[in-house]
Amino acid sequence: MARRWITVDGNEATALVAHRTNDVIAIYPITPSSTMGELADEWSAKGRQNIWGQVPTIVEMQSEGGVAGAVHGALQAGSLTTTFTASQGLLLMVPNLYKIAGELTPFAMHVSARTIATHALSIFGDHSDVMACRQTGVALLASASVQQAHDFALIAQAATLESRVPFLHFFDGFRTSHEIAKIEALEDDDLRALLPESLVGGHRRRALTPDAPVIRGTAQNPDVFFQAREACNPFYAACPEVVQRAMDAFAARVGRSYRLFEYHGHPEAERVVVLMGSGAETAADTAAALARTGERVGVVAVRLYRPFAIEAFVRALPPTTRAIAVLDRTKEPGAIGDPLYLDVVAALEEARATGLAPATFTPAVIGGRYGLASKEFTPAMARAVFDALTDPASRRRFTVGIVDDVTHQSLPVDEDFDLDRTRAGAVRAVFFGLGSDGTVGANKNSIKIIGEETDLHAQGYFVYDSKKSGAVTISHLRFGPEPIRAPYLVRRASFVACHQFDFLDRYDVVELAEPGAVLLLNAPFAPDRVWDELPLEVQEQILEKQLECYTIDAYQVARDAGMGSRINTIMQTCFFAISGVLPREEAIARIKQAIRKTYGRRGEHVVEANFAAVDQTLAHLHRLTPPGTTTTSRRRPPLVAPAAPDFVQRVTATMLANHGDRLPVSAFPVDGTWPVGTAKWEKRNIATEIPVWDEALCIQCNKCAMVCPHAAIRAKVYPADGLDGRPETFKAVDWKGGEFKGLKYTIQVAPEDCTGCTLCAMVCPAKDKGNPKHRALDMHTQRPLRDAERENFDFFLGLPEVDRAAVKPDIKSVQLLEPLFEFSGACAGCGETPYLKLLTQLFGDRALIANATGCSSIYGGNLPTTPYAANRDGRGPAWSNSLFEDNAEFGLGIRLAVDQHRDQAQALVRRLAARGAIGGELADAILDADQAGEAGVIAQRARVEALRRAIGGGAEDEERQRLWTLADYLVRKSVWIVGGDGWAYDIGYGGLDHVLSLGRDVNILVLDTEVYSNTGGQQSKATPMAAAAKFAAAGKAVGKKDLGLMATAYGHVYVAQIAFGAKDAQTVKAFQEAEAYPGTSLLIAYSHCIAHGYDLARGLEQQKGAVDSGHWPLFRFDPRRTDAGEPAMVLDSGPPRTPLGSYARQEARYRMVEQAYPERFRALLAEAERDAKARYAQYAALAAKPEAKGDRS
Amino acid sequence: MMDLRTTYLGLELEHPLMPGASPLVDDLDTVRRLEDAGAAAIVMHSLFEEQISREVERRHEHLEAHEHVFAEALSYFPAPDEYALGPDRYLEQVRLVKDAVSVPVIGSLNGTSPEGWLNYARLIEQAGADAIELNFYYVATDPEETATQVEDRLVEIVGHVRHRVRVPIAVKLSPFFTSLPHLARRLADAGADGLVLFNRFYQPDIDPEMLEAVPHLHFSTSDELLLRVRWLAILSGRVRTSLAATGGVHTGLDALKAVMAGAHAVQLVAALLQRGPAHLAAVRRDLSHWLEEREYESLRQAQGSMSLERSPDPEAFERGNYMRALQSWKPRVRAGS
Fold first, then answer.
1. What are the chain B neighbours of A464 within 8 Å (beta carbons)?
2. Residue A1153 confidence (pLDDT) above 50
3. CB neighbours (10 Å) of residue A543?
4. Tell me, what's the ipTM?
5. β-strand A548-552 against A622-624: which pairing, if any?
C-alpha cells in the first residue's frame, strides 16, 4: 500500500495514532507533552473521527491527578482511553497507574519523557519520569525517533488490548517530541488491521455495568491480598511475546520491523552498548560507522523495557560480547547503579542461572549516565563509550557528555569525531533568528516543502531562549537523500544564516560553520559596508574557513514589499536560492505554493505581498567577497560588564554565550542554590525605542515606574549634593512634594534593560499643553541614546536610596522605593511583573516568596540570569519554587518555620534577659515591638543589631549561639505565595483552600491571566465566558470561577481583587493592607497577557475596560472592618458602566470567537454581561452597611 | 397601491428604500426583519481596506509574533487558521445574507488606495453580491496632494474594480469635491453605474481636560438631507449613472424629497438603527400615501421632478439661492431695542 509521507514532530506523530484509536482522552497541559492534547482537542473540535467512526471525547482536567482518575473511570467503564503527559504530571498519575495495572486494564498512554525537578526544574528530556513508574506494573515501551513514536503508539495500543497489561509508551521530550521529521503515515486500515474487534471487544466486555454487575476495588486483608496480587503473573509473563507478535504483525503489514531488543552493529561485536530512547539511534549509527572501519562494536536498543524479557535480551547480544556499557538517561543517587544497568546485570545473571545463556557468557558490565535534561548525546560521546569498553575495569561507573572535575566520572570525548560529514549530498543548516522574526516558522515551512514534496529526507530541531522577550531561536535543519538518523544538534553546518546582525556581537555564530560553508547575513548595510561592520572574530573565521558569504538587507526588502518587519519569507528564499537543496526555480515555485497555502486564507493582499518579497529577494541578495585580510580591530564586546562578580564572569557569562555545556561540575552549587541579582549583568539591548524624560513637563506622579514590567524606568529623590560629578546628560529637577522638600528628583531609564513595551509612555499623564503629542515620556530610538543613558543609569544607581521610614504609603511615594525584582525575562509589556516589582519595593527586604511553577517561576528563576535582587544591605526577597501543585502548602511551610524561629528567638530573648545576659529594656523593646509599618521594622532591625552586640558572636554559651543564629527572625518576615491562575484556580486549589482555612499569616498573590500562559494558552477555571483558549476553541461556555468571593466565605481571610492599570492606588492599598493583616490574605491581580491577543501597549486601557465593564470589579474584603461594625467588603469600582463587548472586542481571544461563531458569541457575551451585573450586585449587597439593610426591611 | 418601482444600478426594485451600509446586516435575524419590512435591497456593512490589510498586520504582530518563540508555548491560541478573521468572514456573511433574502444584495467596500484589497470586489461578487458599492472615504491631510490627484486616484480605483467585476458598481462619495458634476462624469466613464450621495464623516470631538481627540458618532437628522437634495438635483439627468441618497432620510417625506431631487434609491441607516428595521415599512407607507393623495401615477413621475434641469426655479440650487436667502434674512431682534 502506498502511504503518505508527512513531516511532523514526535508529538503529532503520536497523537495522530492515539486520537484515531481511542474514545476518551483526558488531558492536562505540561511541557513537552501539551501539543498532543492540543492536537487531539483540535481534531475532535473539527469532528475528526476515530477508526470506529466516533469523535473522541476530550476533557481537560484540573491536574494530572485528576486526569488519572478520569482515565481510570473511563477505562473501568469500558472506553478505550488515553492521555498524554510528562514529568511531574506523570508522577501525579502514579497512584492510578498502580490501580489500572493491578486491575489488568488495557490502556496505552503516551509520555514525552521529561526531567523530574530536583535541584532545579527542567522542561527538557530524560527518563527520570518514566523510571519512576517502573514499579507500578505498567509496561514501558520506548520509541527512539519520530517514526517510531508514530508506529509504537499503535503497537502499544494493540499490545495492551491483547495482554491486558497497561502500556506507557514514551519518547524523549523535546529531542523526539519536538523534532520534525519526514515519516511514513499509518493509514486507518493499518490501525484497523492491528486492532481487530476481537481485541477491542474483550476490553468492552469487562466494563463495569449494572447489566452484569461486578465489584472492583475491594479492600483485602492479610489472608488474601498477597495471593491475589500474584494472580496477575501469567499476564506479565506473556506480555513480551504479545508485544513481539504485535511488532511482527505490524512489520508484515507496514514493512518496518521492530524487536523487543534490537541489535545494530558488527555481527561479532565484542563491545556492546545498551540503551533506550533517541540515544539508541545515535549509538547505532556510530556503531555502524565504527564497524565499517573494522571495530567490533554494536548496540542493543531497548524497545520494551518492562516487562523485561531476559531471553529476548540475551538473544539480542552477539555471543562474542566481552564488555557491555549500559547507558541510563536518569540518575538514582545512592543506588548501586542506575536502573537499566541493574536490570542488565540481573538479566545476565538470570540468563546464566536458567540456561538461557551459557555459564561462560560473562561479559563485563559497566554503567554510565548521559543526556540528563536533553544534554546532547552525539556520535563523539557514543564513541567515547565504545572506547571506554576497551578497558571496562577502569570505568565501572561513568558519565558522558559533561566534564566532571569533582568526582572525575566523565569520559573524555574527542569532539572532532563526527558522522555528519560522512553523509553524501546532505545539507546541514543552522539559522540564528529572533523569536519574533518568524525564523522558526519559515524553517518549519521549508521542511514541509522539502519533506512532503520531494524525495529528500528532512529533519528540524529548534533551540529556544529562556527569555520570553527578545528571545533568540536557533534552528538546526538537515536535508538529504538518505534517511536522517541524527537526533543531535548540527555541529558542523554547511549553511549558517544569521537573521539578526546584532547576534554577531553576542554569539559565536560562525563557529558552527564548516570550512567552505555558506554564511548568509541579514545586514542593515549596503553590501560594500557589511565586511567592515563585522567584528574582528567573525572576519578572522570567515577568512580562515574560506566561507562563501552572502548578504541581504532583509528588513529593507520587507518594508518595500509591504511586509512590515516580517523577514521570514525573504530569508527562506535566500536559503533556497543559495543552498541548492532544490533547483532555484523549483524552490521559488514551491515557496510560492506554500505561501498560497499558508496565507491564502488571510487574503490576496498577504499572498501578493509575500510574492513580491520573494521576487525582490534575489535582486537584493549579494555575494560578499571578503578582502584577503581583516579590516577592523573591533572585537566582540564582553557579554557582562567587567564589574560583575566572579561567579557571573565565570559561570553566567559562559551560559550567556551559549557555552554552558562547557562548564564543569565544579562550577556549580551542589544544591541548586544560586546568587540573586544576576539579571542586571545581562544587557540585552532588545528595545528599538526607549522612553526619554522631559523633566520640565513631568508632574512627578511616578506612574511610569509603577507600570514598568521590567523595572527599567525608575524614580528617585536624593540630596542635591548627590549630583556632584553627574554625567553631562543626567537630568534632575527639584522634587515637588512636601515630604522630601529640598531633595532632587530623577526619572531614569535603564536603556539596555528596557524592552521598549511603551507602557510608561502610554500611562504618562503629563502632556505639553501646546503640543499634546509630546508627553513627559516620549519613545525615541535607543541606539543613539544607549551610551549616554547607560552612564546615566549607572550614576542613578549610585545615588542614595530614599529613607524608607519617611515614604508615605501612597502610589507616588512608594515608587521611590528600590525595586528588588528587575529586568526579568518576562514578555515585553507583561501584566504580571508590575505586581511583583511592587511587592519587592514594599516588602522585598523581608520577604520570602514561594512561587508556583508557571510564567512567574520561569521569568523569576530560569537561568542563566534571574531578576530577584538584594539591596545595599544585602537584604532582598528569598525565592523558591517547589512545584506547580503544592505552592500554597509550600508557602505555608515557610511561614510555619519562620514563626517557629521567631518564637524560639523570642523565648531565648526572654531567657537570656532573665539571666541578665541582655538588658531588660532591650528585651522588652524587642518583644513588644510594633512592626506593623516600615518604621517599626526598621527600628526593630536596629534593636536586633543591639541584641547581637549584647550577646556577642563567638560566645560559647549555647543559648547565645542559638539566638545569634535566629535573631533576624525577631524582625517581622513577610511570606508571599505567588502563582498564576492555573495554580490557584485549578491544580493547586485544594491546597490553596486549605491554607485559606488555616488563617496563618501568609499573603497569597494570584497573577490572573485567565489562562495557562506559560504552557501556551490553555483554558483554566479563570478563563472568562466567551473567550477562546486552547480546549475552549469555540469560546468558554461557563463563567469564570469567583475565587475571591469563595475566599470571603471563610470570613477570616483578607481578600482583594485588584488591577493596577485601572486603579493603581487601590492596588498599592490592597498590598499594604494584605501584608499588615495578621492572618491569611489573598490578592487576585488582573494581569494582561500576550495570550489575550492584542498589543500589550494597550494593556492598561484593557485593565480599565475590564473594570468599567464589570468583568473585573475591584474590591477589598477586610475582616478587621467588622470589628468596627462595618461590612468587611468595600467596593472600589462602580457598577458596570460600559458594555462588556466594548472591552472584549479589543482582544483576539474574544474576537476570534465572534468571527468564527457570531451567534454563539452574542449569546455568551450577553450571558457574561448578565453575570457581571449580578456579580456586582452580589458584591454591593455584601458591601452595604447594616443600617442600609435595616432601612429596607 | 401606488407604483413605487424604480431602477437602481440596473436592478429593478419594488421601491427605492433600502438599508444603507451599516452594522444592521451583521445579524442575519435583522436582515430577515429588514426584508420583512420590505427593504428593496440589502446594502452590506462595509469591508474596509484596513480590515483587509491591517487585520493581517495586527494578527501578525499580536498573535503570530509570539509563536515559535518559547519552548513551552509554541502558540497561544487554538489553531488560528480555523478562524476566518476579517475578509473571509465578510465573504461568508455576504453568502449567508444572499441565501437568507430574495432581494438584491449590494456588497460594500470602503477604502482609498488602488491596491490589492480591490481584489475583494471580485470575491464579493463571487460570494453572490448583485452589485458593489465602493465607498471612497477619504480625508485629505497632505498639503502636497492636489485635488486632481485625489480625483485621479478615485477614478483609478473605479477603473480597477470595473475591470474585476461584472456586476454594477455604485460609488459612494463625500460632498467635498470642487466640481462634483465633472467628477461624476469621469466616474461614469470609468465604469461607475451609480453614485451614492453622501458619506458622512465622523467628526472627532475634543476632550479639553485630557487633551485628547475623542471619536464621535452621532446619528444623522433630516436637516442633513438638504445637502444631498441639492447635489442630487444638480446631477440628476446630467450624468448617466443611477443616483442614491444616503444620510438624513428619516421619514417618508424625506424620501420623497430625495426622489424628487433625482434619487433612484434611498438609503436609511440612522432611522433604522434608532427605530428598528420595521421603520422602513412606515417610511414606505408614508411615501406611498403622499403620492396617492396627490394622485401621482407612479414614483417615476416624481423622480427628478425637482432636479436642476426640471425644477421651476433652478436658481434655488445654484448661487442665486445664496443671494436670495441672504436678502430674505432679517434679524429678529435689533441690537439695542
1. 69-71
2. yes
3. 14
4. 0.90
5. antiparallel
Nearest one of A73, A94, A75, A95 to A85, comparing CA atoms: A94
Testing the interface with A: which of B32, B58, B70 to mutate, by most A Cβ within 10 A?
A: B70
Asked whether the beta carbons of A479 and A426 are under 8 A apart, the reply is yes
Whole-angstrom Cα distance, residue B136 to residue B173? Answer: 6
Q: Chain A partners of B88 at a C-beta cutoff of 8 Å?
A: 601, 603
Examine residue A524 and say whether the peptide bond preceding it is cis (omega within 30 degrees of 0). Answer: no
Q: Contacts of residue B61 in chain A, CB cutoff 8 Å?
A: 564, 1095
Rounded CA-CA distance A172/A194 in Å is: 25
- Known catalytic residue: A245? no
Query: How distant is the Cα of B60 from the closest Cα of chain A, in angstroms?
Result: 9
Q: Which residue of B has its CA nearest to A764?
A: B210
- Helices and strands: H and E segment counts in chain A: 43, 38
Is A31 annotated as catalytic? Answer: yes
- Crossing angle of helices B119-126 and B87-100, in 10° steps, is 30
Sheet holding A167-172, edge to edge: A84-85, A108-113, A167-172, A139-142, A304-306
Q: What integer pLDDT is reported at residue A954 of this predicted model?
A: 62
| C-beta atoms of A1029 and B84 within 8 A | no
pTM score of the predicted model: 0.92
What is the Cα–Cα distance from A1027 to A1037, expressed in whole angstroms?
Answer: 9
Q: Calculate Rg over the CA atoms of chain A.
A: 32
DSSP state for residue A853 in the 8-state scheme? S
- What number of other Cβ atoms are within 10 A of residue A860's Cβ? 25
Q: Which helix (H) or strand (E) covers residue A1128, if one does?
A: none
What is the DSSP secondary structure assignment for residue A77, as one 8-state letter?
T
Most A CBs within 10 A among B50, B77, B122, B207, hence the mutation to make, goes to B77
For residue range A882-933, what is the model confidence (pLDDT) as tens digits?
Answer: 999 999 999 999 999 999 999 999 999 999 999 999 999 999 999 999 998 8
Q: How far apart are CA A478 and CA A455, in angstroms?
A: 14
Q: Cβ distance A236 to A307 under 8 Å?
A: yes
Residue range A989-1015: average pLDDT? Answer: 98
Residues B275-299 as b or e (16 or more Cβ within 10 Å = b): eebebbeebbebbbebbeeeebeeb
pLDDT for A1193: 39
Pairing of strands A1115-1117, A1054-1058: antiparallel
Task: Report d(CA A348, CA A351) in Å as an integer.
Answer: 5
A1094 to chain B, any CB pair closer than 8 A? The answer is yes
How many Å apart are CA B203 and CA B226, to the nearest integer?
Answer: 19
Quote the mean pLDDT of chain A. Answer: 95
Question: Judging by DSSP bridges, how do beta strands A744-749 and A771-775 pair with one another?
Answer: unpaired
A601 closest CB neighbour out of B58, B61, B81:
B81
Q: Quick check: A990 and A996 in contact, CB under 8 A?
A: no
Contacts of A64 (CB under 8 A, 6+ apart): A28, A30, A85, A88, A89, A90, A91, A92, A93
Question: CA dist A814 to A840, A1031, B266, Å?
Answer: 11, 41, 62
- Using an 8 Å CB-CB cutoff, list chain B residues near A606: 56
Which residues are registered as beta bridge partners of A112? Answer: A171
Smallest CA–CA distance, residue A51 to chain B, in Å, is 23
Closest chain A residue by Cα to residue B85: A1155
Query: Would you call A9 an interface residue with chain B, using a CB distance cutoff of 8 Å?
Result: no
| Residue (of A79, A248, A284, A31) closest to A151 by Cα position | A248
Q: Which of A370-379, A500-509, B60-69 has the lowest mean pLDDT?
A: B60-69
**Is A860:A469 a contact under the CB 8 Å cutoff?**
no
Residue found under cell 528569598: A878
User: Other CB atoms closer than 10 Å to residue B331's CB: what's the count?
Assistant: 7
A307: preceding bond cis by omega (within 30 degrees) = yes
Residue carrying the nine cell digits 468492552: A204
